[in-house]
Amino acid sequence: MTIWILNGLTVDDNEANSGLVKKHLRIEDGKIAEWADGETTPDTTGALTIDASGKLISAGLIDMHVHLREPGFEYKETIASGTRSAAKGGFTTIAPMPNTRPVMDTPETIKYVLDKAATEGVVRVLPYAAITKNELGRELTDFAALKESGAIGFTDDGVGVQNAQMMKNAMALAASLDMPVIAHCEDDTLVEGAAYSEGAFVKKHGLKGIPNESEAIHVGRDILLSEATGVHYHVCHVSTEQSVRLIRLGKSVGVKVTAEVCPHHLLLSDEDIPNATDANWKMNPPLRTPRDVEACIQALEEGTIDIIVTDHAPHSEEEKAREVLRAPFGIVGFETAFPLLYTRFVKTGRWTLSFLLRRMTSDPARVFRLPYGTLAVGAPADVTLIDLENEREVDPATFLTKGRNTPFAGWKLYGWPVLTIVDGQVVWMEENGINR
Ligand SMILES: NC(=O)N[C@@H](CC(=O)O)C(=O)O
Ligand SMILES: [Zn+2]
Ligand SMILES: [Zn+2]
Question: What does this protein's record comment on cofactor binding (predicted)?
Answer without folding.
Answer: Binds 2 Zn(2+) ions per subunit.
